[in-house]
């Protein structure tokens, strides 16, 4: 910092203010300091800064099932949002079904001196393990379908209703649900939205076919879908919809001519499926921004006052009126 101050012709205190984005620094002075930092290759040492300020400016992220699209997309969005707010991310991964693994991951993050923890917690078991712990830093949970006072979420039930409504509005009255794993909170909420929209429209409850989020499970459901007599399917995620599209194609069933399909998530590839997939988009970036904002604010964390983020239906080519 002494070298930067000397090169820029300012005091060390001014350099510190620039590093901390203090508002009381003239724009020309700030640019001079930043230019000196660039010339000297200066990089702030977060460990040294933490010793001086007693703040780590680090957010912990505890995650399970990070290979799935929703959790992995959220982790990336959390890192970007934290960096934009001047914070770093320290991640720990846990087996959602193993309470000791969750406890160990929390202990690891707390030992790093994190100022708060975001738990990407799609399973009820993870929330139960957290509730049994005393954690001395603020905690926010994502992908927990908004459960509890610390859960932020995209409205999964509303998203499912959008998907079913799109199929019903096209004229479908026999609609199946290709569901996610029963131990996932968001799968439970999407199944509830499927049932609620059918009931509100006076339509018979459609068959629910168990899946595992994978394209393979969607492919394996093809014959059951065909035997069920439905003309449309709401798949609880785009990967299962992809597998189902492949299975229907192999069986000679035209989509959307003979079967309409809607997914959930709007993965980047969904616009390039054949046919292009109608799906429900979640705003993971906004969810991450809310989580980081809640943790870095001076207010006590209480997510119950933050409404769930509304999902959006993305209409493409996989829906048509029923052929029969």
Plain-language structure description:
The protein is α/β, with parallel strands linked by helices and 324 residues long. The chain folds into 3 domains: 2-44, Orthogonal Bundle (434 Repressor (Amino-terminal Domain)), CATH 1.10.260.40; 56-154 and 284-309, Rossmann fold (3-Layer(aba) Sandwich); 156-282, Response regulator (Rossmann fold, 3-Layer(aba) Sandwich). Helices cover 44% and strands 13% of the residues. It has 13 helices and 10 strands. It has helices at residues 2-8, 12-19, 27-40, 46-53, 69-84, 99-111, 124-131, 156-169, 185-200, 215-220, 222-228, 238-250, 284-296; strands at 58-63, 88-93, 116-120, 139-142, 175-179, 208-210, 232-235, 260-262, 279-281, 312-314. The strands form 3 sheets. A 4-stranded parallel sheet has the order 2-1-3-4, sandwiched between helices. The chain has a 4-stranded parallel sheet with strand order 6-5-7-8, with helices on both faces. Helix 5 (69-84) crosses helix 13 (284-296). It starts with a helix and ends in a 10-residue tail after the last strand. The mean pLDDT is 89. InterPro entries: HTH_LacI (IPR000843), LacI/GalR-like_sensor (IPR046335), Lambda_DNA-bd_dom_sf (IPR010982), Peripla_BP_I (IPR028082). Residues 1-53 form the HTH lacI-type domain. Keywords: DNA-binding, Transcription, Transcription regulation.
